């Protein structure tokens, strides 16, 4: 995993299209099991520099049923890795070493994880200075750790945890804003 190239790019408007295309395919496969599917992570925040990997958050009715869809999801390129270290999650990635998409799937009542994933991009959209600071930090780390994803992740960990903490607090006060542009 440490050999993975760490590339941070300026925001690309096509990321939203790449999200929508996969979201449509996933809706077709999961059908009634799917409650909603959100574009999350840095690629969902306009003007934020990001690794060009589309993060997706499908919210489902019953997480236990999802394993039955692994083969169908594999047909459209998503490798299912089960919980992958986070109980209650189903993690899928697409593109192998040159990853293009990843899905963090949760059951609808797993509010804590769903909130966390939705609050951060909403917060960054509303706080331009922090969004820009985060983008610069990521660009610097990608330069410093071009082939060390763990070094890159460790470098942004404290910033991300602090933004996450603020985002969850902010979200409690700004429930209306929170859902805007999140579909």
Give your account of this protein's structure.
The protein is of the alpha+beta class and 183 residues long. It has one domain: Beta Polymerase, domain 2 (2-Layer Sandwich). Helices cover 47% and strands 16% of the residues. The chain has six helices and five strands; from the N terminus they run αββαβββαααα. It has helices at residues 14-30, 70-75, 111-126, 128-144, 149-173, 175-179, and strands at 34-40, 54-60, 78-80, 89-94, 101-107. A five-stranded mixed sheet has the order 1-2-5-4-3, with helices on both faces. The longest helix has 25 residues, at 149-173.
Any key phrases for this structure?
single chain, 183 residues, alpha+beta, Beta Polymerase, domain 2, 6 helices, globular
Q: What level of helicity do the residues show?
A: 40-55%
Strand order of the largest sheet: 1-2-5-4-3
| Low-confidence spans | none
How many domains make up the coordinates? 1
What is the CATH architecture assignment? Answer: 2-Layer Sandwich
Number-wise, the strands total 5
Give a quick account of the main beta sheet: strands, pairing sense, barrel closure. 5 strands, mixed
- The total of helices stands at 6
CATH superfamily: Beta Polymerase, domain 2
Shape: globular
How many angstroms does the end-to-end distance come to?
31 Å
What CATH calls the topology is Beta Polymerase, domain 2
| Strand proportion | 15-25%
Radius of gyration, in Å, reads 16 Å
Summarize model confidence as the mean pLDDT: 93
- SSE pattern, N- to C-terminal: HEEHEEEHHHH
